[in-house]
Amino acid sequence: MRIGILTGGGDCPGLNAVIRAVVRRSVSNYGSEVVGFLEGWRGPIENMVMPLTLQSTGGLIQRGGTILRTSRTNPFKIERGPERIMESMKSNRLDALIAMGGEDTCGVAHKMHQQHNLNVVCVPKTIDNDLNATDFTFGFDTAVNIVMEAIDRLHTTAESHNRVLVCEVMGRHAGWIACYGGIAGGADHILVPEIPIDLTNVVESIKKRHARGKDYSIVVVAEGAKLEHQEALKDQELDSFGHVRLGGIGETLAKLIEKHTGYETRAIVLGHIQRGGSPTAFDRVLATRFGVLAADLVQQKKFGRMVSLQGSFVKDVPVADGVDSLKTLDMDLYKVAEVFFG
Ligand code: F6P
Fold first, then answer.
1. What is the pLDDT of residue 235?
2. Does the global pTM surpass 0.90?
3. Mutate to test the pocket of ligand 1, among 69, 128, 179, 328 (most ligand atoms within 8 A of CB)
4. Domain range annotation of the chain
5. Would you please indicate which residues are annotated as catalytic (active-site) residues?
6. Which residues contact 340 (CB under 8 A, 6 or more apart)?
7. Are the C-beta atoms of residues 6 and 279 closer than 8 Å to each other?
């Protein structure tokens, strides 16, 4: 078989590990050939390809980002986008495509499978961990570890200066990174998009902590968290999937906390640092298992499927199950985090 592979959406640690696993499995075990499309869905639309061999994909397991590069291209917003994808599949003599991405990239794959009969298998990736039908996406564990390390470092400054430090983390509309990172780092309050921010509650909790002799606090806030009664921002630029660029809640919150507590408060935005660098061991192993299974599904012609982690097993599910709604934070986990607030 000849197989295409692409990476779309935000980069994330573990993408190269999947590419390596797909090529190794497909070439060594099945005698197939693999070709990479560059820059997400833009690759097949513009017919930008590069051959992927055992040589060119060796030694990739520890490398962050994606050697195929990526973009947030929505083919359904581009003139003849879907048709051009099918033409590229044909001109490159490809039997199947493996699409790696989050809700947007996999959402396009699902539509392409349904409306254009594209032979596609999806691999769920995102640091946000907000894809349904999989317990975890790879990249998430690495991001959480980066947040944890950052909070560890913030602790020493917060303690030395008697400050409140507000750490803004990514995650889009789901609080997974904030909650896992916050619990692991021992945050004193965690704010997530799933629950509107009750400022009085945050202020009371910080005051309570200071009253029992702790002169500093760490507050983790997810970029998508909103203050109660906060109006939706108008006239914001949207990307081709209709997403706004989030960010800024940390700074807003820090000012409010300082105003209402009188404690010196600063905001820190971790930003793209959370997506950078080498994947953790967990993400390397998960990415490798996903890559091997995706290659197997292609050989079995199980198209329109997505690989997923269920408990400790990797399985395949319909892509639709992964993308039909967002997987928001498990509230039982948030309740565990709350035990340590204040
Ligand atoms: O989906 C991954 C993610 O890092 C989100 O957490 C964040 O909101 C978004 O991508 C940022 O996207 P960009 O890198 O395009 O600014």
1. 66
2. yes
3. 128
4. 2-138+279-323, 140-276
5. 128
6. 183, 186, 187, 188
7. no
